[in-house]
């Protein structure tokens, strides 16, 4: 299995996941044209995509899906509770391309396990497993829960949200206080500090690779997230580079991670 971040953050999320038999997109918050362009960079044709898995209805996760699915006849998979918010937004997706799941399901040689995450709309994180290999992607959650940790534990690799630095969020002048409170609230996004706490639990479960994801453009920077989180976990005895490797996903195409 391999995974590559094609874009991560509030400007648009797009992740590519591949096994021997399957090529998938997780969310597509870029334009259709930009999606095609980025797939071309990694040598993948749109017609090769077997499906798009959707986490939730926010536009930074679905912007490109309507056109991409209808143009290239690619099926769109979402939890039944998420579809109620997608129906109006993905009008061009044909009836035969609307795929509904309500629990874990096999996608050829990959087992996909959804786990609900606390956000201001119905939202799911996912684990992708094959034999003893497991990759998880969890973003857009206001807080971490034991149930989520349980579901994604023992993943070798986790894409985990590190959306905002709390000081930067509350000191910033661009957002109204109500929005700041929403982001920081239990159904908003995961802060660097929340993320560090979750990483400690994941490392204890055997995770050796974390990719910090969905960073806010206004309230975080890749260097700040990386430094804050590595220093926090180091105080608790977890060393980046030895016990766990931490990378940061940005709006640019990232490096491949391959699980053998
Ligand atoms: Zn988002
Ligand atoms: Zn969201």
What does this structure look like?
The structure is a single chain. This protein is an alpha/beta fold and 260 residues long. It has a single domain, classed as 4-Layer Sandwich (Metallo-beta-lactamase, Chain A), CATH 3.60.15.10. Helix content is 30%, strand content 26%. It contains nine helices and 14 strands. Strands 6-5-4-3-2-1-14 form a seven-stranded mixed β-sheet. α5 (146-152) links the parallel β10 (133-138) and β11. It is globular, with a radius of gyration of 17 Å. The structure holds zinc ion (2 copies).
Describe the structure concisely:
The protein is an alpha/beta fold and 260 residues long. The chain is built from nine helices and 14 strands.
Rg, Å, rounded: 17 Å
In the residues, how many domains can be counted?
A: 1
| Bound heterogens, unique | zinc ion
Q: Just name the CATH architecture.
A: 4-Layer Sandwich
Number-wise, the strands total 14
Distance between the termini: 7 Å
The ordered string of helix (H) and strand (E) elements is EEEHEHHEHEEEEEHEHHHEHEE
Strand content: 25-35%
List unreliable stretches of 5+ residues: none
Indicate the structural class: alpha/beta
CATH H-level name... which superfamily? Ribonuclease Z/Hydroxyacylglutathione hydrolase-like
CATH names the topology as: Metallo-beta-lactamase, Chain A
Please, what is the average pLDDT?
96
Helices and strands in order:
Blueprint: E1 2-7, E2 14-18, E3 23-28, H1 32-41, E4 51-53, H2 59-62, H3 65-72, E5 76-79, H4 80-86, E6 98-101, E7 105-107, E8 110-116, E9 124-130, E10 133-138, H5 146-152, E11 157-161, H6 166-171, H7 177-184, H8 192-204, E12 209-213, H9 222-235, E13 245-248, E14 257-258
Parallel strand pairs: 3-4, 4-5, 5-6, 10-11, 11-12, 12-13
Antiparallel strand pairs: 1-2, 1-14, 2-3, 7-8, 8-9, 9-10
Helix pairs in contact: 1-3, 8-9
Bound molecules: zinc ion (ZN) (2 copies).
The site of one zinc ion (ZN) has 4 residues, from loops.
């Amino acid at each position: 299995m391999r995974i590559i971040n094609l874009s991560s953050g509030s400007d648009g999320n797009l992740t590519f996941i591949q096994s021997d038999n399957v090529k998938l997109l997780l969310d597509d918050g870029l334009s259709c044209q930009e999606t095609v362009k980025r797939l071309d960079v990694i040598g993948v044709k749109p017609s090769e995509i077997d499906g798009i898995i959707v986490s939730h209805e926010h536009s930074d996760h679905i912007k490109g899906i309507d056109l991409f699915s209808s143009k290239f006849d690619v099926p769109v998979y979402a939890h039944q509770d998420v579809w109620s918010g997608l129906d109006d937004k993905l009008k061009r997706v044909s009836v035969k391309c609307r795929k509904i799941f309500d629990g874990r399901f096999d996608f050829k040689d990959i087992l996909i396990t959804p786990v609900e995450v606390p956000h201001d709309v119905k939202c799911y994180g996912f684990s992708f497993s094959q034999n003893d290999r497991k990759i998880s992607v969890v973003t857009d959650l206001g807080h971490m829960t034991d149930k989520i940790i349980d579901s994604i534990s023992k993943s070798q690799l986790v894409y985990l949200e590190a959306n905002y630095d709390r000081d930067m969020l509350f000191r910033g002048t661009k957002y109204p206080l109500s929005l700041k409170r929403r982001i920081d609230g239990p159904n908003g996004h995961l802060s660097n500090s929340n993320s560090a706490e979750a990483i400690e639990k994941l490392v204890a479960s055997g995770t050796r690779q974390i990719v910090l994801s969905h960073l806010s453009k206004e309230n975080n920077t890749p260097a700040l997230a990386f430094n804050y989180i590595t220093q926090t976990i180091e105080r608790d005895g977890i060393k980046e580079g030895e016990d766990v490797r931490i990378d940061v996903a940005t709006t640019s195409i990232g490096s491949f991670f391959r699980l053998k």
